[in-house]
Amino acid sequence: MIQMYHVFKHYPPNIHALADVTLFVEKGEFVFLTGHSGAGKSTLLRLITRAEIPSAGQILVAGRNVLALNPSKIPFFRRQIGVVFQDIKLIARKTIFENIAFILSVMGVPFQEQKKRVYQILKLVGLHHRMNALPHQLSGGEQQRVAIARALINHPPLLIADEPTGNLDEEMAWDVMTLFDKLNMKGTTVVMATHNRQIVEMMKKRIIHIEKGRVVEDSGARREPA
Ligand SMILES: Nc1ncnc2c1ncn2[C@@H]1O[C@H](COP(=O)(O)OP(=O)(O)OP(=O)(O)O)[C@@H](O)[C@H]1O
Ligand SMILES: [Mg+2]
């Protein structure tokens, strides 16, 4: 699902956020990305989603060379990746329903179908009864779950999450992890950056540990993609 070969990311004048990262994530894997603040976790995730491009190296995601993507293909590429960040960016003046439905609307999905799909996905995160609320009427954890629902609306084969539990209390954080585990069991590949040691220890998944832009430990490394 993800192949990175000798990836470097340099920010001028002298920050080396990633240095010679080579790693492979298979379809259906669940991977935690750990490391101290500033280690390069978010940078790595931004390169996978092509929010940024590497200074050197090759990256393949879902069989596509992200650097060679034709700009017109980027929106289609991004639709295959569900992205969840710690800072939730819901649109303040739109309802929860509208915050999710607009993605389907852009894709030309008919309104009746939008209603059905948004309801289903909100049910998955336990917020179908809040469809008509505005974001500020929800708690932080509820807003985070809406952001997760929005990332999942297209049933993306790959879910990228950067500190998705950062704003949540312990119980809510476990709800999110249970949800990710469920999605993973249905086949979604999950890559999640986190500082939450307890979650990483309890979940027993592959751990890629980054220090100063380098992979220093990988509990499930393979030398070549299968
Ligand atoms: N846009 C940018 N411009 C310049 N430097 C950046 C930029 N983004 C990140 N960096 C630097 O790159 C390094 C890696 O940052 P990154 O955000 O990837 O770390 P992180 O592991 O996600 O940390 P945290 O756990 O705090 O989120 C840091 O030194 C950071 O200051
Ligand atoms: Mg980060």
Q: What's the helix count? A: 7
Share of helix, binned: 25-40%
- Strand sequence of the main sheet, in spatial order? 6-7-8-3-9-10
Biggest sheet character: 6 strands, mixed
For this entry, what is the oligomeric state of its chains? Answer: single chain
Explain how this protein is built.
There is one protein chain. With 226 residues, this protein is α/β, with parallel strands linked by helices. The protein is 33% helix and 26% strand. It is built from 7 helices and 10 strands. The longest helix is centred in the last third of the chain and has 16 residues, at 170-185. The radius of gyration is 18 Å and the shape is globular. The chain binds adenosine-5'-triphosphate and magnesium ion (MG). Magnesium ion binds at residues 41-42, 162.
Features:
alpha/beta, six-stranded mixed sheet, four-stranded antiparallel sheet, globular, binds adenosine-5'-triphosphate, binds magnesium ion
Give a brief rundown of this model.
With 226 residues, the protein is α/β, with parallel strands linked by helices.
